[in-house]
Amino acid sequence: MQPNELEQWKELAITCAKTAGKLSLEKMNQPYTVNYKTSASDLVTAVDEEVEQMVIDMILKQYPEHGILGEENRFQGMAPSEYDTLWIIDPIDGTTNFVHQQINFSVSIAVYHKGEAIVGVVYDPSRDELFYATKGGGAYLNDRQLRIHRQVKLEEALLCTSVFWHKRAEQIGIDVIFKELAGKVRGMRLLGSAALELSYVAAGRLDGYVSLQLNPWDFGAGKLIIQEAGGTATTMEGKELPYDAKSSVMGCNPTFYEELQQFIRSNMNLIRSAQDAKDHT
Ligand code: IPD
Ligand code: CA
Ligand code: CA
Ligand code: CA
């Protein structure tokens, strides 16, 4: 990577995110088709596809040798791991909100180089809020640098999670833990756009965000924005987030990350031992 490339990629990611966000806003009040992907709660609109195509065209015009991993699969190329430089894009994160609320959706664009996140951009067009970060260059909301500074204990945390609604939660017993957790923390929130929720952790509007399963286009940009704001972003097991596979995600204010991990881990063990005892009776 040349020294000026990081800055050029950041500028292009910001231009793409802003152009994409504006296109979504324009199209929002015109008729568009809505299709079900896997079910009535998994939507894709013609706008998701049009926006993704536009962003792909903008990137390839400048960097035809780069790879792109987009949620709506509009890029036909090699496997993501085959590219030195990979753009990971979610044209509309929060499609359900786009359709129902016309607010609380975002564009998420991340640039990975040799497997490492180096640019992350999340743009909320309805509030004109741009969250972005570069590796080693800090995180920003519009012109303001973001620094997570609040000291938070678990009981003081404002936590965001979609775990309750995840089918796997009941199977692995984690829904019970999150019910416990909901009674322990100061409050729970759910916005419906993972990229925005992660960016809100970086901005201190939320203290933590936990999801059982997301795709790299949901968390690729938000992860770097949290880390560059001084926060922690890992899988729920504390491992590094992948760029080419589904994963659980835990993005946190670092002062309460360990306490949250510990709470989940010890309650998981309690559930496991109760399960083992039951299996042996
Ligand atoms: C969804 C949103 C939502 C999260 C889902 C994602 P989409 O993305 O980020 O907050 O809970 O798991 O699939 O489909 O609206 O881009
Ligand atoms: Ca989707
Ligand atoms: Ca998404
Ligand atoms: Ca999407």
TrEMBL record:
InterPro entries: IMPase (IPR033942), Inositol_monoP_metal-BS (IPR020583), Inositol_monophosphatase-like (IPR000760). PROSITE patterns: IMP_1. GO terms for biological process: inositol metabolic process; signal transduction. GO terms for molecular function: inositol monophosphate 1-phosphatase activity; metal ion binding. Keywords: Hydrolase, Magnesium, Metal-binding. Mg(2+) 1 binds at residues 71, 92, 218. It comes from the Bacteria. SUPFAM superfamilies: Carbohydrate phosphatase (SSF56655). Its EC number is 3.1.3.25. It catalyses: a myo-inositol phosphate + H2O = myo-inositol + phosphate. Its cofactor is Mg(2+). Mg(2+) 2 binds at residues 90, 93. Belongs to the inositol monophosphatase superfamily. PANTHER family: INOSITOL MONOPHOSPHATASE, INOSITOL-1-MONOPHOSPHATASE-RELATED. This is Inositol-1-monophosphatase. The lineage of its organism: Bacteria, Bacillati, Bacillota, Bacilli, Bacillales.
